[in-house]
Amino acid sequence: MGRLQRALAAATMVAVTGTGLLALAEPAAAASLRVSPSTGLDPNGQTISVSGSGFDPNRNNKFGVYVVFGPRRADYYTNSGNYGAALWVHPGGAGSGQARMSPSGTFSVSLTVKARYTDSSGRAVDCTRTRCYVMTFAAHGVPDRSQDTLIPVSFKGSDSPNPGGSDPDNPGSGGSGSGGSTGPGGGSSASPSTGALTGSSASPLPSPGMAAPAAGAAGAATPLAVQPFRQTASGPPAQSPWPFWLTTAVLVAAGLTARRLIIRRRLRRT
């Protein structure tokens, strides 16, 4: 094999390796949630652990997400009166009702949940009859569904929950959405959801720049104000593009090397 053939073979190998690097470059992570435990909860009240990863802390003016518990209605991301427990998780989270989201988009919080409570409109919520969830969604009413996740939770003595989370007192309100998969240790995990399930619950959610109020008596929640926002992204959280550019540079270098060798070979022949 001549020198030119060997050089071209080497350049081809480099190009193939670069293409492999591009194929192996990790895709951007999607928001995901884990709840433990998520089944057999004490209906009189139990504290559960909730952890999230793959969220984007810079999204939507760094508003972060709400982590809530309750049935899921069509207005789940604008009606603060729906929930029995709620936390505001964002990069600057501190103080009562808030928690910090890390620069990498992770968080770990606790929620105390009960099977039965009364929401802010005076409606009795019974999570032994209606499917209830731990959910996340973009804070302050932002219509960005990329930060949505949900995991169904159940209590001891629960009846078979109504399919789709429909409320037995409002049978026409059912919807659909993606749920979680059971994980080890009695916990569950979930990836983003886009459906609109139904239900009702209670606890106020915070406004921008203010500490989230602690949950008060049933019916004391105030409506969530929909705030102006600048949606900074519409896809999954961005990650560094260096694998793509590295692979591109390798391919370009291989092509230029092969071209130079071909030109040299032609010049020698002439």
List keywords for this structure.
alpha+beta; five-stranded antiparallel β-sheet; five-stranded mixed β-sheet; 19% helix
Summarize the helices and strands and which ones pair or pack.
Blueprint: H1 3-24, E1 32-36, E2 46-53, E3 65-70, E4 85-90, E5 98-100, E6 107-113, E7 116-118, E8 124-126, E9 132-138, E10 149-153, E11 181-182, E12 188-190, H2 242-269
What does this structure look like?
- By secondary structure, this protein is of the alpha+beta class.
- It has a domain at 30-157: Sandwich (Immunoglobulin-like).
- The chain is 19% helix and 21% strand.
- The protein has helices spanning 3-24, 242-269, and strands at 32-36, 46-53, 65-70, 85-90, 98-100, 107-113, 116-118, 124-126, 132-138, 149-153, 181-182, 188-190.
- The strands form three sheets. Strands 6-2-1-12-11 form a five-stranded antiparallel sheet, with no helix packed on it. Strands 5-4-3-9-10 form a five-stranded mixed sheet, with no helix packed on it. Strands 7-8 form a two-stranded antiparallel sheet.
- A hairpin with a 5-residue loop joins β11 and β12 (188-190).
- The protein is elongated and about 95 Å long.
- The two termini are 21 Å apart.
- Residues 172-188 have a biased composition (Gly residues).
- Residues 157-171, 189-215 have a biased composition (Low complexity).
- InterPro entries: Neocarzinostatin-like.
